[in-house]
Design goal:
This protein has a six-stranded antiparallel sheet, sandwiched between helices. Strands 2-1-5-4-3 form a five-stranded antiparallel sheet. It has a five-stranded antiparallel sheet with strand order 13-12-16-15-14, sandwiched between helices. It has 1022 residues and is α+β, with helices and mostly antiparallel strands. The relative contact order is 0.05. The protein folds into six domains: 107 residues, Beta-Lactamase (2-Layer Sandwich), CATH 3.30.450; 180 residues, Beta-Lactamase; 105 residues, PAS domain (Beta-Lactamase, 2-Layer Sandwich), CATH 3.30.450; 125 residues, PAS domain (Beta-Lactamase); 159 residues, P-loop containing nucleotide triphosphate hydrolases (Rossmann fold, 3-Layer(aba) Sandwich); 122 residues, Helicase, Ruva Protein, domain 3, CATH 1.10.8. Helix 4 packs antiparallel against helix 5 and helix 12 crosses helix 27. The longest helix is centred in the N-terminal third of the chain and has 40 residues. The chain has 34 helices and 39 strands.
């Protein structure tokens, strides 16, 4: 029987020991490798860790303590689960198990209580037999990277929102919709609770306020748009001064509300705001308002990238607002431009060449007097049809040349409106070509320059008239520089007086014309002239070239030529008069006869007013004859006159000086309305004793009646006025009625030079013959000769038929050459021949044509300057200036304003079918004080404009053009003053004007007649 074997303890232990020995070897290997890992991991910046297969922490490097602030040794040998909160632990366990299963996952976890987010990379930890015995891995802190990525995403979202918002704001939609879209896009991009826009506004005293305009709120967030506390919010008054200081400088206001100043914190906490940011909006470089963002859920940071993006958003909003403002301004400007074009007689045009379509502005239709229907068919041909027949070929050629040259162009032409009105047009244009260089369009402007053409013509005629009158004056005329005393220019009469040739006077000065003993007086006189005084000099001695002396009276006035203040002196040779005065002593024996035969009453009295002598005329004027000699003058006059003469004699006897009483009514039996002028003079005997006085009485009744009759003269051939200057003008025109001399009319633009030319013609001996008017400035130089003298067929390119010139048309009548100063030199020579020889030839023809034409020229330029510069022929200048008419400026004839007012009210009442009665006192005051640079034409335009806009029966200040409405004159009106105040106002005004009655009347807005009546009423004397 086999022996039973009982196992011993040794048999059991031997295999176990072998197993333990193997495990010990593995642990030694693992421990050795673990030490190697530790040495490696201790020197890296990322977190390194080793977990065993039971979830215990075998190792973590020093980075763990840096990231979490906790000691590593407190966790070694313990499970890793406490490192994570519930949400992150679930992911940690899943990835741990995956690693033990042999995978190498990458994942993100956040440490508990730290907010630190790490990116983990795990891999299995194996022993020497490749058996998985744990987990080894690294964790990199990506907290800041994730924040940066979030910021970048927010920035990109904001930038995308800006793009969308810009399109919305710059679109044609409403501002409200655009801003609401902008706030929604930006609020969602930044992920805030609320976004809004505030706009600033100021009170009258400059206090700055702001009000909420638009708002967007996230779902579940209470809107604040209806919060009245935010409407009309006073920055500084509510403790928000730092907002003003910051945002005006372009800075933002942002942060946590708990850190804000107390006033701000109270307001924002009442709206549950935790954090907020406000970015200023600028429009046209001014702080317009701000865009704000609120976070109500939790505090949040505002990274720099997000802030920059929000600034860009605010900039986009500001730019859009600025563009909208600019567009609105442009719209208003376009409306203003259209009105300006209409008022300035300018219109714009465009021509589509291929389609032959013309597009005109409303202003251009007004200028041409046609409507759009006139251009619907064959537009270019329709345009050419509007042009004066004589200009059509030239215009067509010019346009075709511009198309060929493809360059900008400018030219003038005439049109004939449907109503027959001839207008002068100036156009500028530009050719537009396609990519192939073919002209496809033209565009440009057209301006009605008719008035300018007429004004230029009148100016030249005025200058020519001045030249003719200057040269042909019967007085010697001399223009000098009062500062240097140099002679500037002179006429032939002056040369003749002094015996010099015209060239010899060049370079001479005033001292060269006087004796040495007279120079001090001449220097004093010119000092007065420099001060602006107008002087009359009597008995001035002049030295001729041969050394002889002659005497002259000089009347001086200041003139302005070529920007220089000069003095014009008119010399009248009184040498003969001086000789006559020297001979008076030889005729003393005739004084008695002269005394008795003069038409004035002369009565001499002694110191007691007894009559000592009386002439024959005294009987008819005063009712006193020689039987009254020895009688008291008081007794002779007490029953027949007003005793004004006695008062004058008393004043002379008591004061020893002459007295003049101008025009008083001194009636007597048979002459109840007799008007006289009294003069009294002291009588001094040969011993120098005062012995009495002489009374000289002039009967001016007939003169007054004649003046009244003359005063009623208010118009001469459409020239209206009754002022002294206009009466003198009427007198001069009528004096030329039977004379055929050349006349030069001068005067400022708008003074009526053409009317004067018409008056000269129709009151003259040629009134039943043609009056042909030529505006020399309106006709191109190359056409002027043809226009004046005509041409024959073939004389030049475009001369397809014979043409009669203006001079030939005017044969037997009058040619009116307006703007004579603009005639080119070659034409001046032909004009001179026409005036001198009365003959000419047409262009291209050798046949001489004789004609009988009176020449009237007009100018508003100083032709003498053009003569000096060689721009105008001197001989032609003197030929034209035989007689000169000077048209006074309106500011020099303000007494005519009532007549002109009546004329224009009647004229425009008929034209506009309005019943306007007159002007308000304020308007009359403005008219009396305004300088009227445009003269009658400007006055007429002011009335026409007032008639157009006036809604009432009286023209008021608001109806006037802006230039008049805004004019601030210095006039004072007498209206509304009681008598003491009225007397004081008149006296003060007279002192201010140096007792110049005309200036005082103008300032007081009354006539001189009224002023004289007031002076007598208040007994005011200089």
């Amino acid at each position: 029987m086999p022996k039973k074997v009982i196992p011993s303890d040794l048999d059991f232990l031997i295999p176990r020991l072998a197993e333990l020995e193997s495990q010990i070897a593995e642990y030694r290997w693992a421990e050795q490798n673990l030490d190697n890992y530790k040495m490696l991991f201790d020197n890296i910046s990322d977190l390194a860790y080793i977990f065993d297969d039971k979830g215990n922490i075998l190792y973590m490097n020093k980075t763990f303590a840096r990231l979490t602030g906790k000691r590593t040794e407190d966790f070694i040998g313990r499970p890793f689960a406490p490192l994570f909160d519930e949400e992150n632990l679930k992911s940690a366990l899943e990835n741990y198990i995956m690693t033990l299963d042999g995978e190498s996952p990458q994942f993100e976890l956040r440490f508990k209580d730290t907010g630190i987010l790490c990116e983990y990379k795990s891999m299995p930890l194996r022993d020497g037999k490749r058996k998985i015995i744990g987990v080894i891995g690294t964790a990199r802190d990506i907290t800041e990277r994730k924040k940066a990525e979030l910021v970048l995403r927010q920035r990109d979202s904001v930038l995308e929102a800006i793009r969308v918002v810009s399109e919305e704001l710059l679109g044609a939609g409403s501002a409200e919709r655009a801003f609401e879209t902008a706030l929604k896009k930006l609020g969602e991009a930044v992920n805030v609770s609320r976004a809004y826009i505030f706009k600033n506004h100021s009170s009258d005293d400059g206090t700055l306020f702001t009000s909420q305009l638009y708002e967007w709120s996230a779902p579940g967030v209470m809107p604040q748009i209806d919060n009245q506390e935010l409407q009309g919010f006073h920055y500084r008054g509510s403790g928000f001064s730092r907002w003003v200081d910051a945002m005006e400088g372009g800075a933002i206001v942002e942060g946590h509300v708990r850190e804000f100043p107390e006033a701000e914190k109270i307001l924002f906490e009442s709206q549950d705001i935790k954090s907020m940011a406000a970015v200023p909006i600028f429009v046209e470089n001014s702080w317009w308002g701000f865009i704000g963002f609120d976070e109500c859920a939790e505090e949040r940071e505002w990274p720099a990238l997000v802030i920059d993006a929000l600034k860009a958003a605010a900039g986009a909003i500001g730019s859009a607002m600025q563009r909208r403002l600019i567009e609105e301004k442009l719209r208003k400007t376009a409306v203003t431009l259209m009105e300006a074009q209409r008022l300035s007689l300018i219109g714009s045009w465009e021509w589509d060449i291929a389609r032959n379509v013309l597009s005109w502005s409303e202003g251009l239709f007004d200028i041409f007097g046609v409507g759009p229907e006139n251009l619907k068919k064959d537009a270019y041909e329709a345009f050419i049809g509007c042009i004066h027949i004589d200009d059509r070929q030239e215009v067509d050629s010019t346009i075709r040349k511009a198309l060929s040259d493809k360059r900008p162009f400018s030219f003038e032409f005439r049109i004939v409106r449907p109503d027959g009105d001839l207008r002068h047009i100036h156009t500028r244009g530009q050719v537009i070509c396609n990519e192939a260089g073919t002209p496809v369009k033209m565009f440009g402007t057209g301006q009605d320059i008719t008035e300018r053409k007429l004004a230029d013509q009148k100016m030249r005629e005025s200058e020519e008239q001045f030249r003719v009158i200057f040269e042909n004056s019967s007085d010697g005329l001399l223009v000098t520089d009062p500062r240097t005393l140099k002679l500037v220019f002179w006429n032939k009469k002056f040369c003749h007086m002094l015996g010099y040739g015209e060239e010899e006077l060049k370079g001479m000065s005033i001292p060269d014309l006087h004796r040495a003993e007279d120079l001090s007086r001449a220097a004093e006189d010119f000092e007065k002239l420099n001060r602006g005084e107008m002087l009359f000099f009597k008995d001035v001695a002049f030295k001729r070239k041969d050394g002889s002396i002659f005497y002259a009276d000089i009347n001086t006035s200041q003139i302005r030529l070529a920007g220089n203040d000069l003095v014009l002196g008119a010399l009248r040779d009184i040498t003969a008069r001086k000789r006559t005065e020297d001979e008076l002593n030889r005729y003393k024996s005739n004084l008695e006869a002269i005394f008795r035969s003069v038409k004035e009453a002369i009565i001499s009295v002694d110191l007691d007013l007894h009559v000592t002598e009386v002439n024959e005329t005294a009987k008819s004027i005063c009712g006193i004859d020689r039987t009254g000699i020895g009688e008291s003058l008081k007794g002779l006059t007490k029953s027949s006159c007003s005793f004004k003469c006695l008062a004058a004699l008393d004043e002379t006897i008591s004061g020893g000086s002459p007295v003049e009483v101008f025009r008083l009514e001194c009636g007597r039996t048979g002459k109840p309305h007799q008007t006289v002028t009294l003069n009294t003079y002291p009588l001094i005997d040969s011993a120098g004793r005062f012995t009495g006085a002489v009374l000289v009485v002039s009967d001016e009744t007939r003169l007054v009646d004649l003046e009244k009759d003359l005063g009623e003269r208010r118009q001469l051939h459409n020239i209206i006025g009754k002022s002294d200057k206009m009466r003198e003008l009427f007198r001069l025109i009528e004096s030329l009625a039977g004379i055929d001399s050349t006349v030069l009319i001068s005067g400022e633009s708008g003074t009526g030079k053409e009317l004067a030319a018409e008056a000269l013609h129709y009151t003259g001996i040629r009134s039943n013959k043609p009056l042909v008017k030529v505006n020399c400035a309106a006709i191109p130089e190359y056409l002027l000769e043809s226009e004046l003298f005509g041409h024959v067929k073939g004389a030049f390119t475009g001369a397809v038929r014979d043409r009669v010139g203006r001079f030939e048309l005017a044969n037997g009548g009058t040619v009116f050459l307006d703007e004579i100063g603009d005639v080119p030199p070659e034409t001046q020579l032909r004009l001179l021949r026409v005036i001198q020889e009365k003959e000419f030839e047409r262009l291209g023809d050798s046949k001489t044509i004789r004609m009988d034409v009176r020449v009237i020229a007009a100018t508003n330029r100083e032709l003498t300057e053009k003569v000096k510069k060689g721009e105008f022929r001197e001989d032609l200048y003197y030929r034209l200036k035989v007689v000169e008419l000077t048209m006074p400026a309106l500011r020099e004839r303000l007494d005519d304003l009532p007549l002109l007012e009546d004329h224009f009210i009647k004229k425009f009442s008929r034209k506009f079918k309005k019943n306007i009665k007159g002007l308000s006192p304020e308007v009359r005051k403005i008219f009396m004080n305004y300088p009227w640079p445009g003269n009658i034409r400007e006055l007429e335009h002011a009335f026409e404009r007032a008639f157009i806009v006036c809604p009432d029966s009286t023209i008021n200040v608001n109806d006037l053009p802006p230039s008049l409405r805004e004019y601030s004159g210095s006039g004072k009106s007498l209206g509304g003053y009681d008598e003491p105040d009225e007397r004081e106002l008149i006296e003060n005004t007279l002192r201010e004007t140096g007792w110049n009655k005309k200036k005082a009347a103008n300032r007081l807005c009354i006539s001189r007649t009224t002023l004289y009546r007031k002076l007598e009423k208040y007994n005011l004397h200089e």
